[in-house]
């Protein structure tokens, strides 16, 4: 019974799970926090990874390790492999103007959108690595001049686990590469001309591995040596982005729409063909199995619940109770939850808004209900965008911290209009990385099947008025902000 390790280096923390490669049984786990902010020195991720590995009892008995990480983050290295500046994370919106310019430079009247969608599967937004490189070139030319290689958070951590050899040893996978803005899921190749268009010159990028290709071997000395650091012969998986890992972790298949309610909200499906949405709503990413992962991302998900709970001075459990005590539709009270800018629709400078406030609905319960429904409606817009691209929606698989809310679980089928399945709480990104590591360790043609227990299903009649009122309020918000949805 070989053991494997999966790592989730997320925005907020690093999680490590050790699982049985054949059955998926959890053996032990550990975690460590990351610093806050939208730019972080990557060395903080490395320190957290080492602490999480130690908390998980070390890697001395594992056969393989894979790292999943937050997508898009820009990690720039100089010729010596040193970090040039703190990494800009996916949720850093300072590159919004750069994203707009890259689209406009490719043509007006929708031509630029179509160009990027056909070239890379996605239309650039502030989250993407390419837009951050454009920002760096414009605003920090001295740092830009030092850049010899650019990689993503999971690429950098995997490289460090291998002992940080030459820059030529940087490795990534197709799932994470597809979020850069300069790799094509359709052709499976880099578009270095687009990297040059964004940054002004070409730099080294990681080699893109197949779903079950080893990225090298763990260097035990990288984790400090010692009995628990790791042994010789431990394989490193190619790793992937967090959303592709989550899909692998929950075992998503055709007909499943995965909705993850975390710091950000993501809605994605597993598909056999690449997506190319010129509206920019759907990002045409690749997945971690050789297929594709059309995805819609919002910046605001569980943070909406946190904000509402803070306003009402209650805990999240009490917020859920208040929401469930209020009627569907909250008697006309609607929240558009663009609390910290938004990515879909692309409104990086937006703020949240409440519509339809009247004396009868000016209660804590109505506001709690409006917050839950608003968050879910924003995600349901993403589901609609996926089905417009050909995805099937037989059921929704609901994961993430927000899925722990009883109100989210019970209201979700009313908003989504289909059954909602909630697996038991878990670290699905880390689990997906572990499942990839098991695939590497066992050498099979596909990832091992790991069964779930205690999965719950929720069903309810749809309440179309909730979506309709939200759509009206959303359009008023978009009109107020002005400009096209980029």
UniProtKB/TrEMBL annotation:
EC number of the protein: 2.7.1.17
Pfam family, one: FGGY_N
Entry's transmembrane regions: none
Residue ranges of every copy of the Carbohydrate kinase FGGY N-terminal domain listed in the record: 4-249
SUPFAM superfamilies given in the database record: Actin-like ATPase domain (SSF53067)
Keywords recorded for this protein, A-Z: ATP-binding, Carbohydrate metabolism, Kinase, Nucleotide-binding, Transferase, Xylose metabolism
InterPro entries, alphabetized: ATPase_NBD, Carb_kinase_FGGY, Carb_kinase_FGGY_CS, FGGY_C, FGGY_Carb_Kinase, FGGY_N, Xylulokinase
Residue ranges of every copy of the Carbohydrate kinase FGGY C-terminal domain listed in the record: 258-439
Location of the active site: 242
Residues that, per the record, bind substrate: 71-72
Molecular function via GO: ATP binding; D-xylulokinase activity
EC top class named in words: transferase
Highest taxon above the source species: Bacteria
Catalytic function, reaction form: D-xylulose + ATP = D-xylulose 5-phosphate + ADP + H(+)
Site (Important for activity): 8
GO biological process, one term: D-xylose metabolic process
Keyword Nucleotide-binding: yes
Protein family: Belongs to the FGGY kinase family.
UniProt function note: Catalyzes the phosphorylation of D-xylulose to D-xylulose 5-phosphate.
Protein name from the UniProt record: Xylulose kinase
Gene: xylB
